[in-house]
């Protein structure tokens, strides 16, 4: 290697850079990283590269945590560019630390390009980059480098980069929305139903209270909450009787609707006037006798299954909290309990 470097120094086509060291900027200091998985190693170093627009990697040497790059096409002195702070994940990929990104787009562009080259040399695979709303100027820079959108939430967008020249093995972004329907029936065999304020196909139809569950909310808790919000009726979860799986619904996402049987703890109705036009207790026969349910076989079947469950002719899924060894957390397991109902 020494002989090769000596030869390159004497060649007219190559020359070693006299690198100008740039002081480490504040975005690599005083960063804390709570809640990281064990085994992740913090990685911070300086990559010295040529800033030529037509920069191509020649020979790369690593010495004392600094990567020195000699380029065959150099028109200006090289600059020392810091690598992005990141961790190795357990799949030989990289997770970039959002909190320690450079403060300016130019610094980010330089560090990102240098980091990608470094990760490629090290044989890394998937790269994860979370960009916060206040860092939005970095998004087009990352896209230009080859990153792709993965998913977005209020406050950030997640981008990914797949290095190997093979099909991407990174998991895709969220593909499903989860909704619930609450079947609440009293001792008079009356079902709690609502009319929604919406221009959809079920406008003007008496139907079960429905809605989407919130982030980090259990399915049965979402059912109890939605019924309370729309009708004011307090309930307790009994069982999950059925679920419907549909595709290409809102925003081209798939949709899971879980039908939950709930026991009423109160009867007085107080509607949410922003979403609900009206609500009442309705006999089952009158509910499924509406023209909508005569034409919609799936909705009719849901009501029939719920009725069978109420009459103890059908058993759905109950929920039980169990600890999972995967993450050590309490998790709801839904399963069919064949014990007789009380």
UniProtKB/TrEMBL annotation:
Superkingdom of the source species: Eukaryota
GO MF annotation: an example: NAD binding
Keyword Protein transport listed: no
InterPro entries for the chain: NUDIX_hydrolase-like_dom_sf, Nudix_hydrolase6-like, NUDIX_hydrolase_CS, NUDIX_hydrolase_dom, Pre-Nudix
Keyword Transmembrane helix: no
Stretch forming the signal peptide: none
Keyword field: Hydrolase, Metal-binding
Nudix hydrolase domain residues: 175-304
One of the Pfam families matching this protein, by short name: NUDIX
Family: Belongs to the Nudix hydrolase family.
Protein name: Nudix hydrolase domain-containing protein
Organism: Corchorus olitorius
């Amino acid at each position: 290697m020494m002989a090769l470097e000596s030869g390159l120094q004497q060649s007219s086509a190559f020359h070693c850079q006299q690198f100008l060291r740039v002081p480490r900027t504040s975005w690599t200091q005083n960063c804390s990283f709570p809640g990281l998985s064990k085994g992740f190693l913090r990685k911070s170093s300086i990559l010295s590269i040529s800033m030529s627009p037509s920069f191509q990697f020649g020979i790369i040497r690593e010495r004392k945590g600094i990567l020195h790059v000699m380029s065959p096409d150099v028109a200006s002195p090289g600059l020392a560019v810091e690598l992005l702070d990141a961790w190795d994940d357990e799949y030989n990929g990289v997770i970039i630390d959002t909190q320690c990104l450079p403060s300016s787009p130019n610094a980010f562009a330089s560090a990102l390009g240098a980091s990608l080259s470094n990760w490629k040399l090290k044989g890394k695979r998937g790269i994860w980059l979370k960009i916060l709303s206040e860092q939005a100027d970095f998004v087009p820079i990352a896209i230009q480098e080859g990153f792709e959108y993965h998913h977005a939430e209020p406050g950030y967008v997640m981008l990914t980069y797949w290095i190997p020249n093979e099909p991407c093995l990174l998991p895709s972004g969220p593909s499903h929305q989860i909704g619930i329907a609450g079947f609440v029936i009293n001792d008079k065999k009356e079902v709690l139903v609502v009319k929604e304020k919406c221009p959809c196909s079920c406008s003007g139809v008496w139907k079960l209270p429905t809605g989407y569950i919130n982030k980090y909310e259990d399915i049965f808790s979402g059912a109890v909450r939605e019924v309370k919000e729309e009708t004011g009726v307090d309930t307790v979860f009994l069982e999950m009787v059925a679920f419907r799986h549909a595709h290409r619904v809102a925003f081209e996402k798939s949709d899971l609707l879980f039908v939950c049987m709930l026991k009423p703890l109160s009867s007085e109705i107080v509607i949410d006037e922003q979403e609900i036009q009206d609500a009442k207790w309705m006999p089952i026969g009158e509910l499924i006798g509406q023209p909508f349910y005569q034409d919609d076989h799936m909705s009719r079947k849901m009501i029939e299954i719920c009725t069978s469950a109420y009459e103890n002719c059908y058993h759905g899924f109950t929920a039980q909290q169990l600890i999972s060894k995967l993450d050590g957390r309490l998790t709801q397991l839904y399963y069919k309990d064949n014990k007789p109902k009380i």
